[in-house]
Automatic annotation (TrEMBL):
This is AB hydrolase-1 domain-containing protein. Keywords: Membrane, Transmembrane, Transmembrane helix. It comes from Papaver somniferum (Opium poppy). The keyword Membrane applies. It comes from the Eukaryota. Pfam families: Abhydrolase_6 (PF12697). Residues 97-355 form the AB hydrolase-1 domain. SUPFAM superfamilies: alpha/beta-Hydrolases. The chain crosses the membrane at residues 28-52.
Length: 370
């Protein structure tokens, strides 16, 4: 019996040893799996981080940046704004206008101003590259307020006087809301031409905003969501190849109305290589984040800047605009009765470039003509 017990004890010992080795091997394998998983996760995170990073901008005048070819003013924060003057010399002008360009545009693409009208009425107009566009330095802290303050400082450095007019088209129209909010005391009048809207402005009833939002192409709805909820992904979303990105960025033709298609050649005339030359992240994608990201104010909360009726604010929009739904402009005009609302039948987003429209817009702003 003693011998049998010894044999059983020896067998048990060998089994115990084998089990111990198996447990050790299992723990080793599990440890290796955890290590490999952690390495894979770290590599994936590094890949994602690298993918969503936008390239460093190429600042005009820097060693690896584009040359400076336009006149510029230096702002108080050290940045520069490039500008272009139009019309009569400013020291001879009766009316002085600052023009704010739209998305994916620059100072050389302003609303046309006929020289004949400029001379008849004594109009001086200056267009400028908004931050990050053309030859104006990027502003990593760009907001609606910073753009309005850029307009004010440009006007001061050019000696436009205590008051001046502002005309803003599309994304520049949204920037004009910023001027009405932050520098109303400097304005003699303002015109917003097909201004971009933020679907998340709280002044819009949810139903009104949703109906307008649903009119956008699905790919554009997603682009808007990214800019609003995850602006750090805007550059990646619009440059990746897995999903369709912004129709406007991709220049999809069928997002434009019949009139727009006729006017596009006028908008695209001339050399446009300067527009994004400092980098898309600091120009068009920065624009999208400011327009559709977190808002600093709601235009529908504004009061008239001209309580004594010494100036007017005009809002122009085409009823066939496929980029900015006309229903939202109608709602804004109803909420703000001090706005002079002009709705153009058959007009699309690019109506300021149609024959005669530029003169009509300017005369309405300066002379009150309808």
């Amino acid at each position: 019996m003693v011998g049998i017990n010894k044999k059983i004890s020896a067998a048990s010992a060998r089994a115990h040893t084998r089990k111990k080795k198996q447990n050790s091997g299992l723990k080793l394998a599990m440890g290796m799996c955890k290590t490999i998983s952690l390495v894979v996760l770290m590599v994936f995170v590094a890949f994602v981080y690298q993918a969503i990073q936008s390239p460093a901008p190429k600042i005009c005048g820097s060693s690896d940046g584009p040359p400076i070819t336009a006149p510029r003013v230096k702002l108080s924060d050290g940045r520069h704004l490039a500008y272009k003057e139009h019309g009569v010399p400013k020291d001879e002008a009766k009316y002085k206008i600052v023009y704010i360009h739209g998305f994916d545009s620059f100072r050389l693409n302003p609303m046309p101003l006929s020289q004949e009208l400029a001379e008849d009425l004594g109009i001086y107009m200056v267009s400028f590259d908004r931050a990050g566009y053309g030859e104006s330095d990027p502003n990593p802290k760009r907001t609606d307020k910073s753009t309005a303050l850029d307009v004010e400082e440009l006007a001061d450095q050019l000696g436009l006087g205590s008051k001046f007019y502002v005309i803003g088209f599309s994304m520049g129209g949204k920037a004009t809301w910023g001027c009405l909010k932050y520098i109303p005391h400097r304005l003699a009048g303002a015109a917003l031409l097909a201004p971009v809207v933020n679907y998340w402005w709280p002044g819009f009833p949810a139903k009104v905003a949703k109906e307008a939002y649903d009119l956008q192409r699905v790919q554009d709805q997603w682009t808007l969501r990214v800019s609003h909820y995850a602006p750090f992904l805007t550059y990646w979303w619009n440059t990746q190849k897995w999903f369709p990105a912004s129709s406007v960025v991709s220049r999809v033709i069928d997002i434009f109305s019949k009139q727009d298609l006729e006017l596009i050649p006028r908008l695209l005339s001339g050399d446009r290589t300067q527009i994004r030359q400092q980098g898309e992240s600091v120009s068009i994608f920065s624009d999208m984040n400011v327009a559709f990201g977190g808002y600093t104010f709601d235009p529908m909360d504004l009061e008239s800047p001209f309580s004594n009726n010494e100036g007017k604010v005009h809002l122009w929009h085409g009823d066939e605009d496929l980029l900015v739904p006309v229903s939202l402009q109608r709602y804004i005009a109803e909420k703000l009765p001090w706005i002079q609302y002009h709705e153009l039948p058959g007009a699309g987003h690019l109506f300021p470039y149609a024959d005669g429209m530029n003169d009509a817009i300017v005369k309405s702003l300066l002379l009150g003509e309808k």
